[in-house]
Structure formats: C-alpha cells, structure tokens
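Supplementary Methods, section 5.1.

A reviewer requested that the exact input to the structure prediction be made available. We therefore reproduce it here, unchanged from the version used in the analyses.
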Amino acid sequence: MTSAWINRETQRYPVAVLAGLAGALAHPTPGWAGLAWIAPAILWFGACGLRGPEGFRYGYVAGLVHFLVLLRWMRHIPFPVGAYTGWVALSAYCALFPALWIRLGLQITQGGSQPVDPSADHPLTDRRTGSWHDWLFGARAYARQPWPLRASQLLTLALGWVALEYLRSHLLSGFPWAPLGVSQWRQLPLIQLASVTGVYGVSFLVCWSSLALGGAFLSMGLRPESRWNWTAEARLPLLVTLMVMGWGFWEVMGYRRLERQANPETVRLGLVQPSVPQTLQWDPDEQGRTFTKIESLSRQALALEPEVLIWPEGAFGLTDTNYARMVALLGKNGPDWILGADDSVTREGGSGDRPAVARYNAAFLRRADGSMPPAYWKRRLVPFGEYVPLARWLPFLKWITPIGDGFESGDRPWTFRLTGGATVAPVICFEDVFPHGIRDHVRPEVDFILGLTNDGWFAESAAQWQHTASAVFRSVENGVALVRVCNNGLTGWWDACGTPRDVLGDSTGQVYAPGILLATVPIGLPHTETPYHRHGDVFAQGSLALVAWRLLRSLRRQSIGSEPGTPQG
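The structure derived from this sequence is encoded token-by-token as follows.
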C-alpha cells in the first residue's frame, strides 16, 4: 500500500510545487504577472486521474508551497520564534483552499472517482503501474468529452476558485491577502473589471483563461485527429478577455479625458516616509532620535508648502512635549496635520476582562485652526499583532505576544473634512486589503481613500509591494483615488483607475528609504458610483452559491448511483 501510494502521489508533487511557485511568483516581488495565467492550469490538469483524497493532498502541497513563498516576508517580524511559527501556521491554513479547490473540482467533474481505463481488465490493480499512467487515463477522459461538457467544467472550476477566495476573505476574521487577480495590478485595462465585480472578477477571468488554454493544449495533444476541436476550448474565454480589455482601455482613457476637461481643484499633500525599523519604535531610548528624524523630514515637507502634512501609522516618539514642538513647527496658519497614533478612552465599568481604559489604533486630524474632529479608530485589527483572539477564554495567550491587552476595534467608518475642502476616508494598516471593508468608507463626498500603514514590521521585503497591489484595487472598485503614506514604502497616490501617479522612490526602486513626497491630488471630480460599490460582492457570492449547488447535485447523483439495485453505467 505504501509503495502504491508513493507511485501514485509523490510523482505528482513536482507538478504541485511548480504550480505553487508559479502562482506565488506572479505576485510582487518579483511580480511576473504572466505566470498567473498558467498556474491554475498546471495545478488542475496535474491532478488528472487522481481520486478525491489524493487530489486534496496534491492540492495541499501546491498551496503550502505557494503561501510559504508568498508570505515569506513574515519571517522578518522582530520576534523570530513567533514570526516563523506564524509564517508556517498561516501558510498551512491558507493551503487548505487550493486543496479544497482540487478536491471539490474532482467531486463536481468526476463524482470524486477515478476515471477507469477501458482497456484494463483490472483497473484497480492496474493503478500500481504508476501515477503518470493514471494521469494519462484522466487526461484522455477529459479530452474525449464533448466540448460543451468540457467548457461547463472549466467555467465551474473558475467560479469555484472565486468562491474559495471569497471564503478565505471572510472565514476566521478573513485573510484576503493576494488573491489571484491582484497579480494583474499593473494591467490597467484588465483590472477595470474590478469596478463591476471586485477583484474576484479579475481572479475569475485569469483562472478561466488559464484552464481553457491548458485544456486546449491537452485536447490538441491527445486528440490530434480533431484538428480544430482544441480551439473551441479557448474561444469564449479569449473573446471575453479581449472584450474586457477593450472596455477597460476605454474606461481608462475616459477617466483621463474627464480629468482634463473638468480642470478640478487640487490639494497639495506633504507625505512623510520616515523608514523607522519596528524595533526602534518600541525602544524608549530611541524615542528622541526617532522623533528628530520624522521632525526633520516634516520640516523638509513644510518647505514645499503643502496644504496637509501626513504621517504614517506608527510610534515615532510623539510625546506630549514633542507634540507641542510639532504644533509650533506647523504655526498658526500652517497646514492641516494627519497622523496615526494610539488613542485611549476611559470608560466606566472596567474589570479584569474589560479594562477601564480602552486603547485604539487611531488616525487623527489637526486642522490649521487647531481644531480636532473625532479620531478614526481602526475597525479591523491584526490577530496577535493588535489583539489576542480568544483571550477571554485562553488568557495565557497574552503572555506569548508582545501586545499585552492589545487594542479594541472601532465601530464605524469615518471621514475627515480638510481645511481646504477635500474629504478623505482614512483607513489604517491592512484594512485596505479587505474589499468588503473599504466599501463602507467611501461615501459620495469622499475625494480619496487615505491609507496610513506601517509595514516596517517586515523590513525591506515583498510585503510592501503585495500590500500596495491589493490596496490599488480598492480605488478601482470604488471609483476614487488612493493615497498611501507608509513607514517604509510604497508612499504615493493612485488615481481611480489604479494608475500610479506619483510614488516616492519608485523610479529608482528605492521605495524603502526615508523621504518626502509632495503629491498634488485632484478633488471635486464628478463621481459616478461603481457597480461594485453599489452592490458589493454579488459576483463572488453568486459564484459561491452556484458552486455549492453543483456540488450538492454531484453528491446527490453519487448517492443515488451507490444505492443497491441502481444500474451502473
């Protein structure tokens, strides 16, 4: 049994590893986006001939490789034991989703069973001949099906990919990091689809096209007698992709024409990127030097006469004394000032489980006249980074993290009305990777989303690029510009089509270094609500419902077919 298992499954693992690597490397860095168009095909067609449980294990190997490579930046968290434990544990959890994709796909397309070689007298014992023998049976079984059935299967598989990405975004507080569509963040015409379907629509189109091309090559190789039959596989996805690209190009050009014709007002933003390592932010002995660094950069930014000075999320030595120094530096008629800092609120009824002081990760606005509207409190907290899950029932968990009691989450989105008239929607840290979360922040009067983040936890790694790639989709989905102010990259702004307009250090590649950027952002542009902002994740939810229906139908057929006395075809 062990020998047969090794023959059947481990021979497939190099293919699983290849699929996992291709999917991971499609995301930044290095960001070889073309690999995203082949990774799903390698993963799925590499599973030809496997049974359901075997397919799950094969898919899990691919998923584990994918997420270990994709999330490698977690190793830089300045707590080595926790960093490596979290990296492996999160990768192991996320790997369940590609495994489920293969398992459910086999169930829906094959009823969870192994295709049988019609020439084999004893198909079960014949499986000892090896995994590639089984693969050939499965691939031939696929290629010999009528085109409508093959097309239906591939379409269902692509919808299944979307359904599982949607579930990963919501289950256990959600982790929507780097879905397949995000790898295309630089393909502006293509990603305009997100304004209708969200990022999930881009994932669907890439996955569907990949599977169709893979199926076409498979049909071409295994059915050479059908000279043109293989082209049927790719016609519909190719046509849809071309239509989406053409429409997206028209949308991008239309936005740029609108911007030129509207001749909008602008707001000058002084963006400060201090690039302070996370360990220094926590060190009391470094507070003075840390503040001196960000104060010096702020002076340089103020020399450019911005209307708003903006700091990123993080602790930069802003004591009461240093706050007074900054207020003096800004002057009586100086710019507005937006910054990220902790906020504490005393409440009644404190207890062991409910401290008397509630702490929030917050964004503050100090207007030029010295007034301060209510702060925005971060709504979506990082598990084990800002709060300890299940701490009420498992209090010992507080002792293995550096955050103590942690933060509490805010209960509402918020907007800041700037002195110059612009309205901004602040979000903090990784809130801008959640598609369904940002919709609540974008109200009709909002001119741009403002992301304050501190990716200094991850040194100079791929995290900054992957985070930015996801955040850019929030601007496309909601039809507003995006401004990001980061501790160590990427600081800049993107327009409503996801076009990078001005990014600190991007032209030189030194996005992690300290610096300042004067960003001139248009405000008051005519705003048309996008379908995604109006309806949300209808496409992803519909995909989930359709795949669940197909799965239930497959299970019902399998159950009926297994009843005694049922004819077996």
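The chain is about 45% helix and 10% strand. These observations are discussed further in the main text.
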